[in-house]
Amino acid sequence: MHNVKLFKDPLYGYMELSDSYVSGIIDTAVFQRLRRIIQTSYSPLYPSSVHTRFAHSLGVYHLGKIAGEKLTEEIKKNCPVESPMGWENVKDIFLLSCLLHDVGHAPFSHTGENFFLDDTTTGNQRESLHNTLIGLVDSENFKNDVLSKKSKAAAPHEIMSAIIGIKNFGNHLRDPLGKELFARSITGYKFSNNDKLHSLYNCYISLLNSKVIDVDRLDYLIRDAYFTGFDTVSIDHERLLTNITICQPGGNSGAYELAFRKGAISVIENFVYAHDSERKWIQNHPAILYEMYIIEHIVSTLNEKLSSAENKLFSLECLSEEGQELKNGVRISLLCDDDIISLMKAHCSDDALCKEFFSRQSRRSPLWKTEEEYKKFLLRRAGLDVLKPIESALSKTKEYLRKNSEGEATNSASIKKLEEDIGEIEQNNSPDVDIESIEEQKESKKQILKVMKCLQPHCDNGDIECDFIILEASQFYSGFNKVDFPNINIVFPGNDKMKPSKFGDIVTSLKGYEKSGDNFFYIFYRRSEKQKLIKEDVCNCLIKTFL
Amino acid sequence: MCVYIEIEDLAANALIEILKKNGERFVTYKTLEEYGAKVIERLTEKNERAVLILSRESTDRMLRNYSDFFMEEGQGDGMGIRLREGITTDKLIKRFRGYLAWDALLAFVDKNSVAKLMTPSYA
Description:
CATH superfamily of the largest domain in chain A: Hypothetical protein af1432
Number of helices of chain B: 6
Strand content of chain B: 15-25%
Number of strands of chain A: 10
Radius of gyration of chain B: 13 Å
CATH topology of chain B: Arc Repressor Mutant, subunit A
Shape of chain B: globular
Distance between the termini of chain A: 61 Å
Oligomer: heterodimer
CATH class of chain B: Mainly Alpha
Order of helices and strands of chain B: EHEHEHEEHHH
CATH architecture of the largest domain in chain A: Orthogonal Bundle
Largest interface: A-B, 48 and 45 residues
Helix content of chain B: 40-55%
Number of domains of chain B: 1
Shape of chain A: globular
Structural class of chain A: alpha+beta
Strand content of chain A: 5-15%
CATH topology of the largest domain in chain A: Hypothetical protein af1432
Helix content of chain A: 40-55%
């Protein structure tokens, strides 16, 4: 029997982890780094939202354990397929990937993540993240699956986590296939070979990395709600995960897919609703968006100042215990939030946005604070015909400033630069650019200039500085509308329990609908010990009668 | 200052060039990646730092946010982006070329970049 250690968690109570995982993984510097990375960027709005990726990783492991054990039990009970590794071993690899799924995460939530992709050099060739991972996994199938999916690639932190996981904890992955399954679980790269065996592996992968429901998302939804104090719908995670099963939509000869028993239906809806709430009311809040804008700008500035062609701030080397030396004699190892804060103070203290990060007094304020206010102020006054060109111009202004200026601000400097840009276009003699594109450039930039000049006069009396930021918030898009949501497999007990129904076909979800029918009915009956009423028989009879 | 080339910029500019030159309305992800690499190379030669953002998340976001322009089609290596019916080069230019920096636009239309789009299936 393995020795276990217990971790107390405010959400799940006691979480059990084996001694070998604690001493061999959790206690290592590489994993302990996660104690100094805050999970979310919500603290400007919810001051208590300072939970760490360390706690989240343990939480995902805990939920993964419930889910993994259930899935393994269902496979052993319902499938004649054997894995060469043994299903218990497959489950253990899945659990390891749950524990390590964020071990390569960048500081400050997802803001710095794209800097991991900056692998262009002017000197020696530097391997891309994908190539590094492909080399470590050393499987032709994995290589082919990854290279064919570059535009549907894993997030940079996922690739980084898989790399760090294999490099530092590969001794826990006894089988070569184990390394591949570990990498695939973290990155979400399913086996393209969808025979029965590999489709079952894909079921484990979906439990950690899915577009709708997975244990990663499940933990952060529950955890974020608890620590922010945001009142949202409750998610019965035990009910959800203990209703995991598998199905064969294509019949007995077909591939297996992950499914949920009917008992999970209400929880699935609550899950999507909770995710919608977090995205709409927290992630889209102007305070959060502005905080992310500040951090992105500061991280970009630090990257410029400290990264060289060979040694980059956001790199495998800076995440490691050994670390590396960057420009200006700066040495970084086990990169975390603290390092970024320290570097900001040392290298960007004169930066206006850096000052805004440290002192809220000098922060810009939003003109309106919600999508509803925006629509009330603009739509009601302007009407749709006028709102559309305004939004088009605002969008172009935001895109132009985001992609082409320092700090993205509308101010006298950016107005001057734009006027120079327009001049350059008018003098253009490039044969490659067609007339239509030139005209569109001129027209768009004139619109952008109009927006900028619209804001400028409000500052003429000197009380307000001409220094505006335009940030675009995503129009709210419900998870109920996601393509994958209605395709969640739901299994009902009965003879055809391996043949699922699709969630979208059987559930009227919580969204606006025109009434498609009048009412629905319940049929009640008295049970007898001598005979059991089979509902399929009753339904078949009704259908046959009224056909 | 680092320029980020996002997948919608890449897809839109690729499809403008493909549609103008061959009348085709489809580009594979593989071709887009090769085109993107050339665009980055062009910008780097002009001393502009540029990063290509290609990921599952950004592709899904593009297909969602610009669902009136693009749809996904195909399988395996043949998977890519198709332009929806009724979307013309004019509409693409209007939506996706106006805000580009002049240097970025020159990189997108550069003959070496565009050459990557002209595969045998399009010729």
